[in-house]
Structure formats: C-alpha cells, structure tokens
C-alpha cells in the first residue's frame, strides 16, 4: 500500500434514508474533501427519494419543496449512488452494511405517530395525521388507506404545523387542490368531501402553540373556510401573559397578534368553518353502536408552572362533547426501530451522542454507526434544521476517521453486487430523474407542478413504458 493510501483511504459511507437528513449528511460528507475522501451510497426503502419533502410537506406548500434542488446537486456528485427500493433489515441487514462500509448513518426520520392514550382512540374514523398526510402525498404504503370524507365534522388534535397542514388540506377548495401535486386518489376523494366543520384542538394556550406564524396566518386567509376562535381562549391567562412579557420574543408577540385578529371575525359565507380551540384536551373519543366515532369529549385545562419552568396543562372539571365523525391525532411523530440498531423506546429515537450511536441511552459508542435528523434528535424543526444537525453528525464521522476510530470493513467488494442480488427491482438516481421528468410532464399538461406515480408497480411500469 502506497503512502498516499495510508494517509487517505477512500471512506465508504452508507446513509439509510433519503429524506432531508440523509441528503444533508451526504452534502456535508462531500464538503469534507479533500481532507477526507468519501464515497456515499444512499439506501431508500421506497422507490423514489426525498422522504419528508415528497411525502410530508403539504402539496400546497410547493416552495418548501425547492430544497430538492440542493439534494439533486448532491446526487450529481460522482461519488454518490442511490439504491432505491432497498429495505435495510429486509433485503440487506445492518450487519451486512457494517461489513461493507466504514460508517453507516441512519437518517430514517420519524415514521409513526405518538398516541394520545385515551379511550376510543382506535374507533373507526380515528386516524393518525401521518396516515392522512402520507395518503394525500401519494406515499406508496398508504395508497389504499380510506378516510370517510362523508364526515361533516372533523377534529384535529394538536396545534403543531402538521395539525395545521391537515386542517388546511381539509379546508382547501377542489380548485386550489387541483393546482397542487396532491396524489390523484386524494384529489378525487377530497373533491367529493362533505367536510364542513374542522376543529383544531390545542391542550395549552395560544402562547404555547407549536405552529409557526406563516402557517397560522394562512388559516385566516383560506378561500374555502371561515376561521373562528373562542374569545376567552385567546385571552392570555396571567401566567402566560407574564411569560410572554418576560420572553420579549417578537415572533411570539406576532403570533399572538395574528390569533387576536381572528377574534370576533364575522363569518364570510365560505363553505367551511375552521375553529381553533385552546386549553382543551381530548378525554375520550365517543363511539356509536357501530364502533364509529360520533363525538370527542374534551376537558377545559388550566395552566400551571412545571418544575422545568414551562407552563403545563391541568384538567379542570369543565367538560364538553363536540359531535365529530372523523378525528386526526397530530400530537407528534415518533421514530421506528430498525433491526440491528439500538433504539430508545421512551423517546422513539436512536440513542446517540452528537450523532454517534450509543448501545443505550448514556451507554457506549457503537463504532461506525451514526444517526442524523429526526431519528437522532426527535421530530422537531423545519427541513433546514436538518442541515446543521447533519453537520454535527458528519463532524463526528470526520473526527473518527481522522483519529482512526472508524472500523475497517470486513468485505472489500462493492455493496452493489449484494444489493442487486437481493433486489432485482433496484432503482437508481437515473431512474428517479426519468420518473421526475415524466411526472413533471404529466403535471404540465394539467397545469400542476407534477402528477405523481404512487405505488412501486406504477413507478416501475412508468419507467418501463418509456
Ligand atoms: P409539534 O410541533 O411537536 O406539535 C405537536 C402538538 O401536539 C403540540 O401542539 C403538542 O402540544 C400537541 N400534543 C402532544 N401531545 C398531546 C396530547 N396528548 N394531547 C393533545 N395535544 C398534544 O409536532 P408536529 O406538528 O408533528 O410537527 C413536527 C415538526 O415538523 C415540527 O417541528 C413542525 O414545525 C415541523 N413542520 C413544519 C411545517 C412547516 O414548516 N410548514 C409543516 C409541518 C411540520 P404541547 O405543546 O402542549 O405538547
């Protein structure tokens, strides 16, 4: 081995997951050159890349999807390969990856929802926000999910941006949706929707709402729905008022002004009503004799200062039943364990220290294993938040490479051979580029950004048909 090889081996890095966290990790890895020579293989279970950008970002928020331009640049690097339609843990095990790469970084996001833990949560008509979001965005696993949109009244539990997305999509007019890249099956179903009333339910007050300003402002500007609030729920309780005054946070002040502007707004005769409620917690989903949701029982909360300095909700005696036929819980996402990778069930994350995977929370480093994005830090922040987060993980990988702490892979043959052997339906980034062009062409014909191919069979047939 020549001295150049000794100083500079080419580090082979596998990234599992092709959402923002995966792509930002690859981008940061390439930025380590020339100090670190890297080749990156990205593994994706689905036939197409981009994870949350394709399957999470709302179809009426196209601008946010511009993030993919940077991902495309990364994918264009000669040292990058995309292995789509390959599930780690099914086609290839984590152990097999570790035998072929110096480092494996998990960027698998948070694929499921937290539960509310209340009676009736599993009644017919009660769904998770993730299911609905994945369905309307054309995620292949959710193509055949059905939501009974003959429902007239819908409750969305939670006041984060996902709850706002779900409520907004339910309130959009068919014309508005028809200009987006929403999946065709969802467009058809939502065009026939009977939904008339949508409630968004926050367990704490307006000052603690998780949604961001642009998102809540948009709720007041919908063509298809009048916004309503309960005046006394918008008025701040003394503890919140003091906390807001202390915080001196202009963004928060602005959020409260936006909410205040909804008070007493006269209905504009729009077909739907969107009601934002605060300081109410769901107690129970009430079913009818067929096991279908017919109401949500809520309790009014008051806030108290918790030991950590935050204001937490506490139930009062005041209860109320709101008749609803459909419920979406949107109380936060949760990571899903990967066979062969440590997982902390309590937080729903891979235990890690600045991206280095640990064998348990507070435990020892598992050499050559890393995590990035939501599976590393939990489901928080916007797409761009994953960039510095990935930078932190890559700094750990680079340091471990420099200090000789990356394990040497046992097998030196190219991983592509095992991937192709296990999955004849492997899809590459070139396949994606062709599919992307096809989807955009279908979109252009319909005055839409794109018309998505949804299932793997549809993707394969589209690529074959060209
Ligand atoms: P989130 O921002 O963490 O909001 C979760 C909401 O659920 C909070 O309002 C929380 O209230 C509430 N909640 C939790 N447990 C509850 C319970 N048992 N009963 C009632 N309410 C409960 O999560 P998210 O909406 O899923 O969003 C995830 C991340 O993606 C966020 O960072 C979000 O900003 C981001 N995102 C951004 C966009 C965008 O930029 N347009 C769009 C979608 C998502 P408490 O605060 O009281 O816990």
What do these coordinates show?
With 466 residues, the chain is an alpha/beta fold. It is built from 18 helices and 18 strands. It has helices at 3-7, 20-31, 51-55, 67-75, 94-100, 129-136, 161-171, 174-177, 184-191, 213-219, 231-234, 238-247, 250-261, 374-377, 386-402, 415-422, 429-445, 456-464, and strands at residues 10-16, 37-44, 80-84, 103-106, 112-113, 126-128, 153-157, 197-201, 225-229, 272-277, 280-287, 293-305, 311-323, 326-329, 333-334, 352-353, 356-358, 365-371. It has a 7-stranded mixed β-sheet with strand order 3-2-1-4-18-17-16, sandwiched between helices. Strands 6-14-7-8-10-9 form a 6-stranded parallel β-sheet. Strands 11-12-13 form a 3-stranded antiparallel β-sheet, with no helix packed on it. β12 (293-305) and β13 (311-323) form a beta hairpin. The two termini are 46 Å apart. The model is unreliable at 1-6 (pLDDT under 50). The site of NADP nicotinamide-adenine-dinucleotide phosphate has 25 residues, from α7.
């Amino acid at each position: 081995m020549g001295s150049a090889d000794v100083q500079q081996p080419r580090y082979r890095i596998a990234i599992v997951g092709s959402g923002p966290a995966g792509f930002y990790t690859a981008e940061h890895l390439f930025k380590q050159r020339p100090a670190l020579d890297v080749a990156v293989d990205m593994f994706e279970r689905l036939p197409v890349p981009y994870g949350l950008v394709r399957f999470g970002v709302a179809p009426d928020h196209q601008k946010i999807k511009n993030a993919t331009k940077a991902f495309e640049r990364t994918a264009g690097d000669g040292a990058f390969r995309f292995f789509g339609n390959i599930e780690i843990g099914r086609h290839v095990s984590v152990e097999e990856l570790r035998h072929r790469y110096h480092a494996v970084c998990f960027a698998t996001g948070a694929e499921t929802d937290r539960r509310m833990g209340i009676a009736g949560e599993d009644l017919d008509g009660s769904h998770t926000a993730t299911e609905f979001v994945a369905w309307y965005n054309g995620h292949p696993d959710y193509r055949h999910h059905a939501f009974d949109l003959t429902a007239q009244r819908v409750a969305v539990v939670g006041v984060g941006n996902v709850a706002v997305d779900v409520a907004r999509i339910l309130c959009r007019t068919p014309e508005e949706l028809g200009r987006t890249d929403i999946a065709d099956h969802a467009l058809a179903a939502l065009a026939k929707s009977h939904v008339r009333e949508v409630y968004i339910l926050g367990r704490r007050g307006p000052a603690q709402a998780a949604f961001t300003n642009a998102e809540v402002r948009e709720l007041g500007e919908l063509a298809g729905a009048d916004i309503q609030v309960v005046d006394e729920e918008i008025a701040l309780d003394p503890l919140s008022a003091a906390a807001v005054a202390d915080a001196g946070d202009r963004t928060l002040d602005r959020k409260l002004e936006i909410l205040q502007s909804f008070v007493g707004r006269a209905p504009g005769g729009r077909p739907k009503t969107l009601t934002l409620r605060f300081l109410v917690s769901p107690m129970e989903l009430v079913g009818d004799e067929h096991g279908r949701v017919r109401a949500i029982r809520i309790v009014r909360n008051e806030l108290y200062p918790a030991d950590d300095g935050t204001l937490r909700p506490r139930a009062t005696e005041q209860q109320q039943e709101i008749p609803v036929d459909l419920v979406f819980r949107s109380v936060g996402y949760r990571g899903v364990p990967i066979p062969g990778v440590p997982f902390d069930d309590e937080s729903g994350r891979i235990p890690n220290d600045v991206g280095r995977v640990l064998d348990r929370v507070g435990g020892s480093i598992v050499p050559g294993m890393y995590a990035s994005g939501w599976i590393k830090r939990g489901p928080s922040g916007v797409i761009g938040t994953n960039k510095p987060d990935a930078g932190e993980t890559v700094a750990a990988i680079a340091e471990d490479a420099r200090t000789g702490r990356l394990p040497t892979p046992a097998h030196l043959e190219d991983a592509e051979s095992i991937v192709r052997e296990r999955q004849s339906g492997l899809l590459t980034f070139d396949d994606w580029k062709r599919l992307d062009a096809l989807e955009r062409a279908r979109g252009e014909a319909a005055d839409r950004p794109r018309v998505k191919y949804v299932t793997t069979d549809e993707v394969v047939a589209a690529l074959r048909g060209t």
